[in-house]
Amino acid sequence: MLAKAQDKQREFAFSRSDFDRLRQMLYDAAGISLAEYKMDMVYSRLTRRLRDLKLSSFADYLSHLEAHQGELGNFINAMTTNLTAFFREPHHFDYLTNEYLPARQATGQQQIRVWSAGCSTGAEPYSIAIALRNHPDIDTRQWPISMIASDIDSNVLNVARAGVYDLPRIDGIDEALRKRWFLRGKGENAGMARVKPELQAMLDFRLINLTRPWQLNTRLELIFCRNVMIYFDPPTQCRILEGMADHLVEGGLLFVGHSESPTRVTDRFELIGKTIYRKR
């Protein structure tokens, strides 16, 4: 009786069967495994699409989704989580500055190719770029450093590519770094900040579905894939991590989120620091 009462309060009819079909479609399209308790989350995230399409139920939306391939991108965009912040999990950036760059300089290896997989609105790849270009004692301006920044959500990629953020988004960044790497907006752009072009030039933004062929066409020294694996089931995690190991150079590094552990699903990596793994 309680479930029926809740259904009546909803703007759109949404059954358990609808939810199960949407879960399966998300898994098939993006490899994302939604927990059974996230029915309310799915409802809240998709209601705007139903309103925009002038549909009256989730059954209608499912029919529309199956009939219009172009809607799949909107569906995936709505379902993906894009929590991000500049220099989130700061120990990773401290490692790049204090250990990784000095080690590269000592060996004379200057080329650094990076993949930020699941870059969201750009805070992560721009933070990586700043860390690699802002060493106090090592001038890396002439080093060939490049980065692929990818996400499955086309909307957040557009934000990342533009590199424009409201000032509260960058308040947590050290003042010296803000002045060095961001341009404050004036006039109609007051209250906004833009990443400097020299950082943007390092990044190649791409729409990449981690469960599909990546077509990276390069080997990599560093991969950041943080707080992404938590959305996949173990077999999918294993396939993705095996692919990342294949794309890393020998001794290449993988940076993951605080609740993720690649060694649980593959033996291709070894732990060398706090949520930092090296390809075996």
UniProtKB/TrEMBL annotation:
Gene3D superfamilies: Chemotaxis receptor methyltransferase CheR, N-terminal domain, Vaccinia Virus protein VP39. InterPro entries: Bact_Chemotaxis_MeTrfase, Chemotaxis_MeTrfase_CheR, CheR_C, CheR_MeTrfase, CheR_N, CheR_N_sf, SAM-dependent_MTases_sf. Its EC number is 2.1.1.80. It comes from the Bacteria. It is an enzyme of class 2 (transferase). SMART domains: MeTrc. Keywords: Methyltransferase, S-adenosyl-L-methionine, Transferase. Residues 7-280 form the CheR-type methyltransferase domain. It catalyses: L-glutamyl-[protein] + S-adenosyl-L-methionine = [protein]-L-glutamate 5-O-methyl ester + S-adenosyl-L-homocysteine. The keyword 4Fe-4S does not apply. Methylation of the membrane-bound methyl-accepting chemotaxis proteins (MCP) to form gamma-glutamyl methyl ester residues in MCP. This is Chemotaxis protein methyltransferase. It comes from Pokkaliibacter plantistimulans.
